[in-house]
Automatic annotation (TrEMBL):
Alphabetical list of InterPro entries matching this protein: Crypto/Photolyase_FAD-like_sf, PhrB-like, Rossmann-like_a/b/a_fold, UV-DNA_repair_photolyase
Tagged with keyword Lyase: yes
Protein name: Cryptochrome/photolyase family protein
Record PANTHER family: SLR1343 PROTEIN
Pfam families in alphabetical order: DPRP
Keywords: Lyase, Plasmid
GO molecular function per UniProt: lyase activity
KW rRNA processing (keyword) present: no
Source organism of the structure: Streptomyces finlayi
Start and end residues of each stretch annotated as Disordered: 171-193
Length: 503
């Protein structure tokens, strides 16, 4: 690298906050290169974000700037373009590949900016593209990708075979919650302590709200997720040493009084760039090999990081910007205002009210409430997929464009017609009843389809199958469920009930 290149400023986005984004040995800027960070208020005007999400992002950015000291110039501006002009004028700048199509298009349109390869993932764009192109199909399956990643990165492998003889131990990770239990009884997840920077962030957000400059949804309780590398490492260590052992078996279970169960709560730290996925999966594997956790827990966690998270990132880029517009089921209903406002009082369905209240208070809930309660409800009611995607993006502390487009358009709403999943992820109330303790106190009955006690999920499930019968009965994984419609003696009554239902 020339002396001129060593002096080129490097721009860090707010989700590129870990040391691997400034490591010259890993494709980062020169060790002497000055750094630039831009806090653009326009980002928070564009969407009505959850207040806890806005707090976490700003806190993480300002903490990172404080750590970097004199090496970084931290600019608060109205827009990125304005901040860049103030910081460097027309001088050249480098930046690692951003995490959204819009951000990438923006930086590529700036003549002074040179885009470096993406960081924060196990697989490069080129490697994924080669793998996907070799499939020779429009349909990509996460399980195939996951096995490939395990082999190429030597994760949970014994020679050329998967550890334990099986690639996927998901069948061991679907146990319902222990009967009669209100919690799993495991040590609590790591919780950070706020600093003076958090107080400054909260003051700024209060002022923006008072001035009517920016609007938020949800509550800003004491910050619940790491905002620094040190905090993120502490959270990772606590999970691996004290919570990973019980993660696998009850990974898909839900308990009203135990919001976190044994989940890692590391997604926001990974998505801010505070943690590198390699260190997460390597620590989990090391814990298993030392005898500290069962294989199904280690494999389940590795599959979440090296399998699903990695797959979602690459699907987002491989399918391109138009993927977000998918609407294979032609769903066009508007999101109701109560859902957008996270108003738990607006529904009598206990599971839905409980999860909305949790999201409103924390900006987080684990993957089963997201998929099988929030996402399933939206799918059954035919809400417009792009609006649902935007809602998830805004409402969760770990929500980013690359995260939510494939997760919602592809998996949750089946709006891509099956390009990344083999079937819609939805169910009646029986599944929620089996996997949670949320149905007992509910005024609705999960086994009832029609009438005053009819569970909205049970009735909604059958209504969805009927509405898309022609499509679903051509799906090998759906045909048995679709044929169940013919055994419903009250189908016409159910369909009339659902036509009259008001969300």
């Amino acid at each position: 690298m020339t002396e001129e290149e060593s002096g080129t400023p490097h721009w860090l986005f707010g989700d590129q906050l870990g040391p691997h984004f400034v490591d010259p040995a890993r494709g980062g800027p020169h060790r002497d290169a000055p750094l630039l960070m831009i806090e653009a208020r326009s980002v928070f005007r564009r969407r009505r974000f959850h207040r806890a999400k806005a707090h976490l992002i700003l806190s993480a950015m300002r903490h990172r700037a404080a750590e970097l000291g004199d090496r970084v110039r931290y600019v608060k501006s109205d827009t990125y373009r304005q901040g860049l002009r103030e910081a460097v004028g027309d001088a050249p700048v480098t930046v690692h590949h951003p995490t959204s199509h819009a951000a990438l298009a923006f930086v590529r349109a700036l003549p002074s900016v040179r885009v470096l390869p993406a960081r924060g993932f196990l697989v490069t764009h080129d490697a994924f593209r080669n793998w996907a192109d070799d499939r020779g199909t429009k349909h990509l399956r996460q399980e195939d990708f996951y096995r490939w990643v395990r082999q190429t990165h030597d994760l949970l492998m014994d020679g050329d075979r998967p550890a334990g003889g099986q690639w996927n131990l998901d069948h061991e990770n679907r146990q319902p919650p222990p009967r009669g239990a209100t919690g799993l009884g495991v040590p609590a997840p790591y919780r950070p302590r706020e600093s003076g920077i958090d107080a400054e962030v909260r003051s700024d957000l209060d002022r923006w709200s008072r001035d009517g400059d920016v609007e938020f949804v949800g509550e800003d309780a004491p910050r619940g997720f790491p905002a620094t590398r040190r905090e993120a490492l502490a959270a990772l260590r606590r999970f691996v040493e004290h919570r990973l052992a019980t993660f696998g078996a009850h990974e898909d279970a839900v308990l009203a009084a135990d919001a976190t169960m044994s989940h890692s709560l590391l997604s926001s730290s990974l998505n801010l760039g505070l943690l590198d996925p390699a260190e997460c999966v390597e620590r989990a594997e090391a814990r298993w090999r030392s005898g500290g956790v069962p294989l199904n827990s280690a494999e389940g966690f590795v599959r979440q990081i090296a399998g699903w998270r990695e797959f979602v990132w690459h699907v987002y880029w491989y399918f391109g910007p138009r993927y977000r517009a998918g609407n294979a089921l032609r769903h066009h209903e508007r999101l109701p205002g109560w859902f957008a406002e996270l108003s738990s009082d607006a529904t009598e369905a206990n599971c839905l009210a409980h999860v909305l209240a949790q999201v409103r208070a924390t900006g987080w809930t684990h993957h089963i409430p997201r998929l099988m309660i929030l996402g399933s409800f939206a799918l059954q009611r035919g809400w417009e997929p792009q609006a649902v995607t935007d809602w998830f993006h805004r409402s969760f502390v770990d929500g980013y464009d690359w995260v939510m487009v494939p997760n919602v358009v592809g998996m949750s709403q089946y709006a891509d017609g099956g390009r990344m999943t083999t079937k819609p992820y939805t169910s009646g109330g029986a599944y929620i009843d089996r996997m949670s303790d949320l149905c007992g106190p509910c005024r609705y009955k999960p086994s009832v389809r029609v009438g005053e006690d009819a569970c909205p999920f049970t009735a909604g499930y059958w209504n969805l199958l009927h509405r898309h019968r022609d499509r679903f009965e051509r799906n090998a994984r759906m045909i048995r469920a679709v044929r169940g419609l013919d055994r419903l003696p009250d189908l016409e009554e159910l369909l009339e009930q659902e036509r009259d239902r008001r969300d």
